[in-house]
Design goal:
Blueprint: H1 3-23, H2 32-54, E1 57-61, E2 69-73, H3 79-87, E3 91-96, H4 105-111, E4 115-117, H5 123-138, E5 142-145, H6 163-171, E6 175-180, E7 197-202, H7 212-248
Parallel strand pairs: 1-7, 2-5, 2-6, 3-4, 3-5
Antiparallel strand pairs: 6-7
Helix pairs in contact: 1-2, 2-3, 5-6, 6-7
């Protein structure tokens, strides 16, 4: 088990996040570009903890998106909500509105102009999402939508929500699917962190013009298929690392 390292990581993560959330309060009064750089420092701190405390690393596959675009990302862990702040140019997440109610952290979510959605509002929420997505793209930002609406552990099935399909059909823009296996290293609501490799794969864009149902099915097929491959690959890597540790122990 990796319990001592996980304890150290979690202490560093929660204490560091709390301290930075307070230290970064002045950037809320500055141009948003300043906050983008500040949050990149938070992502760098988390990457440092993963790399040097846990022994995990990150691998990026595919073409890293640049400029305004819509990314439909698999969501397995808190990791991607932090790492994408540094990987992308100017990230805007679609998140549940309750995150804006959290003291200090929520202020950064609101001032950072992320899209807060009331998941219980039905059609009204979709109209709000499309309206805000148009503004995000016009501002030259990358809009990140988690199609399943929540973190989903590897191998767990969860329905895809209509949000990204609404954005695709109303705005007529390409959507870039993103697969990953982060849940193997940093599990959903898990204390334990594993010394594996988080692989993020940006797939070919789905160009505009498809019918809503066709797009939704194609998006789910691409993301789930690629994610299953990355999870299987990650499990093989973790098993090999475990066997090596046992042999050397």
């Amino acid at each position: 088990m990796n319990a001592p390292r996980s304890i150290l990581f979690n202490l560093g993560f929660f204490i560091g996040t709390g301290v930075l959330a307070v230290l970064f309060l002045p950037v809320l009064l500055l141009p948003r570009r300043v906050s983008v750089r500040a949050y990149g420092l938070w992502a760098a701190w988390v990457d440092f903890l993963l790399r040097w405390v846990i022994g995990a690393r990150v691998e990026i596959r595919g073409v890293l998106p640049r400029g305004p675009c819509v990314i439909a990302a698999k969501h397995q862990s808190a990791w991607e909500t932090i790492a994408l702040l540094a990987l992308l140019d100017d990230t805007c997440f679609v998140v549940k509105r309750e995150l804006g109610w959290i003291p200090f952290f929520g202020w950064h979510v609101i001032i950072g102009r992320h899209v807060l959605v009331d998941r219980k509002a039905g059609a009204r929420a979709l109209r709000h999402l499309v309206k805000e997505a148009r503004k995000v793209l016009a501002a030259g930002r990358q809009l990140v939508i988690f199609p399943q609406g929540t973190r989903v552990a590897p191998d767990v099935k969860a329905p895809y929500q209509p949000g990204v399909t609404a954005v695709y059909s109303h705005l007529g823009v390409p959507v870039i699917p993103m697969a990953l296996n982060s849940g193997l290293v940093w599990g959903r609501r898990s204390f334990h962190k594993a010394p594996g490799t988080i692989v993020v794969q940006f797939l070919d864009p789905i160009e505009p013009g498809l019918e809503r149902a066709t797009f939704a099915a194609e998006l789910e097929r691409r993301i789930e298929q690629a994610t299953a491959q990355l999870v299987a690959e990650g499990r093989e890597s973790l098993a090999a690392a475990g066997a090596s540790c046992a042999a050397n122990g």
